[in-house]
Automatic annotation (TrEMBL):
This is Exosome complex protein. Keywords: Nucleus, RNA-binding, rRNA processing. Residues 156-167 have a biased composition (Acidic residues). It is found in: Nucleus. InterPro entries: Exosome-assoc_fac/DNA_repair (IPR011082), Sas10/Utp3/C1D (IPR007146). GO terms for molecular function: DNA binding; RNA binding. One of its GO terms (biological process) is regulation of gene expression. One of its GO terms (cellular component) is nucleolus. Residues 121-140, 146-216 are annotated as: Disordered.
Amino acid sequence: MDESIQPQIVDLQESLANLEASLSPILTAGPLSTATSTLPLLDKAKLYVLATYALESILFSYLRLNGVDAKEHDVFKELARVKEYFSKISGAEGRGKGAAQPRLDKGAASRFVKAGLAGNGKLEDMEGKGKHTRFEAAGKRFREAEDTVPVVRAEDVDDEEEDEGEVVEGKEAEGEEKKRKRKTPEEREKAARKKARKEARTAREGKRWQHLMEEK
C-alpha cells in the first residue's frame, strides 16, 4: 500500500466513527416516523432532510472510494435536490419570524361584549337604565330621550321639589318642606346641573344603543 495515502485512510476512519456516533440516535430509535412524531412541523422537515442528505453523502463517498465518477451518477442529482430543500426550509423560517402578529379589533370586540351584556339586569341598574326584556323597547326609550333632552334650570328643580312636597303627608311632609327651605340657591343650582348631566348621559347611552342595534 502506498504510504502517502495512509493519513487519508486514518482521517476516513475517524470521520466514519464520528458519523456513526452522530447517526446512532436515529439508527437505534426505530422507524424515522416514530422519532419525528412529536416534533413540530418545521423541525420534522429539518430532520428528514438532514437524514436524507447524510444517506446520499455516504453513497456519494462510497462511489468515489470504488473509483466511480460519482458526479455522473444519479446520487449526485439527488444531493443537489436535497440541497434545494435546505433553502426552502430556511425561507420558511424567515417568513415565520417576519410574519405580523394578529391584532385584536378592539372596536368589534367592544360591540360583541356590549351586545352580550345587554340583558344583564345588574349592569343596567348600575347604568341607571332599569331592567329590559327586549332590545327594541330599550332602543325606543333611548331614542325618545335623545330627541327630548330638556334644559333644566334651577327654578324648575325648585318647582319640582315643591310638587313632591305636597304629596308627602303628616310629619314627613313637614320635614321635607323644612329641608327644602333650608337649601341655598347654590345647592339648588348644583342639583339642577347634576340632573341635567344625568339626562344628557342617558341620551348618549340611548344613541349608543341605537347604533348597536342598527349594526345588528
